[in-house]
Amino acid sequence: QMPGTARHDREMAIQAKRSLSKTTDPVERLRLQCLARGSAGIKGLSRVFRIMDDDNSRTLDFKEFVKGLNDYAMMIDKEEAQEIFRIFDKDGSGTIDFDEFLVTLRPPMSNARKEIIMQAFRKLDKTGDGVITIEDLRGVYNAKHHPKYQNGDWTEDQVFRAFLDNFDSPYDKDGKVTTEEFMNYYAGVSASIDTDVYFIIMMKNAWKL
């Protein structure tokens, strides 16, 4: 089965919902609302913003920002949204760069955690092109142990695709996983794990590193 993800995902979502009632920091509140949807929650928000970015400027003004939050059903009032926007609009230009926004929104991780995540990514990215695809997985991940493959429901490719979809946004699955997507996903998982040591052991076991 998949590296401990589903269970950690549930734990993290539950933990995020709990913490939501305690925190007053607006950025933390937004982060927790995303994480309450699971590890791909932050990525889901980024997809909403990307769809709205009609002119491909990779920036959002306040109106687009609020619309994106509403489209993603985030519970945030206008004052709170303004406060968050101000935090991200560092130069006061009236627009925010959404790559910067996502990096700030991602739960902070130690370098030790980032390094082990990258090790796992490099192991999966057989071709070394910075994107994990079904082709990459054929050499690394054995689909034959998957229960749905064993009972004939799924082909090998379907097992691989389901695996990749774990890391992908629920609304726009393209069967490719970039470094950023992999990092975002594990930043979510990481948020539910207190110590670096435990996180590293979990990753090493999961990916046989």
Automatic annotation (TrEMBL):
EF-hand domain boundaries: 40-75, 76-111, 112-147
Nucleotide-binding among keywords: no
Keywords of this entry: Calcium, Metal-binding, Repeat
Keyword RNA-binding: no
Gene3D superfamilies reported in the protein's UniProt record: EF-hand
Gene name, Swiss-Prot/TrEMBL: Capsl
Superkingdom assignment: Eukaryota
InterPro entries found in the cross-reference section: Ca-bind, EF-hand-dom_pair, EF_Hand_1_Ca_BS, EF_hand_dom
Protein name as it appears in the record: CAPSL protein
Example of a GO MF term: calcium ion binding
